[in-house]
UniProtKB/TrEMBL annotation:
GO terms for molecular function: serine-type endopeptidase inhibitor activity. This is Alpha-2-macroglobulin variant 15. Belongs to the protease inhibitor I39 (alpha-2-macroglobulin) family. It comes from Bos taurus. Transmembrane segments: none annotated.
Amino acid sequence: MGKNKLLYPSLTLLLLLLLPTDASVSGKPQYMVLVPSLLHTETPEKGCLLLSHLNETVTVSASLESVRENRSLFTDVVAEKDLFHCVSFTLPWSPTSQEVMFLTIQVKGPTQEFKKRTTVLVKNEESLVFVQTDKPIYKPEQTVKFRIVLLGESFHPLNELVPLVYVEDPKGNRIAQWQNLEVENGLQQLTFPLSSEPFQGSYKVVVQKGSGGTAEHPFTVEEFVLPKFEVQVRMPKIITILEEEVQVSVCGLYTYGKPVPGRVTMNMCRKYRNPSNCYGEESNAVCEKFSGELNNEGCFSHLSQWTQTLDEEFLSRGRCS
């Protein structure tokens, strides 16, 4: 048996102080056993033993007893005068969700023997079930992908048999079902396709746990299209030749009023009154191109240097003359 000086401080402990007759006298053998008053199955548990003032070699044993079985936790020979020792053990899954068992501790030597029996509660660890879909809304004929995550009360993954998993439509019909599903390492992934004309509305994935409880996760099926938006351009209706600068704003707003995120690219052109065909399309107008990111309000503003644009116009016209 290895030695362990540390105990988990968060454990609720049942302390059994085992003292022989007249143990209060200094130097007499003393025994103490510490175990959790609540033990979970399929989870590593720990019990600790303190022996002091031993004057002979003793055999120490611990066992759990119930109407169904007797299970030995440990048996060891102790020759040290003083000993503090912890041992780990794991109880198997129980057909009943919980049961009361008897913990028996026995210390036996050539001249001394002591036996103590007390009760502890043994429970199957309650599993935590989480269901996740790959998205909240689906369209007809799309494939619904979801995963089931099983964790223990201490958030470690479980290997467990799930009796039933099914998908229910808005009318209460089961449209997909899996029975006796093996979940390994706490994770199982499943998929199923939607028909071309499913009921639209709220669906749910239902997971039935071995303990009898259930976990549910909703999702929606509907015909939806990407949201539409409109582009608004704000600039002066009239620009005179005396204007040196022109403020231009471009905004993108969804039809429900929310701003559109993204980037805008814009051309601002001034057509010639008497266009020339010297340079093709370039002879019809002089243009300024600018771009930028839309702000939190879905807008972008640009200050155009109108004087420079006019100068370019006259320059272009001069090239054609």
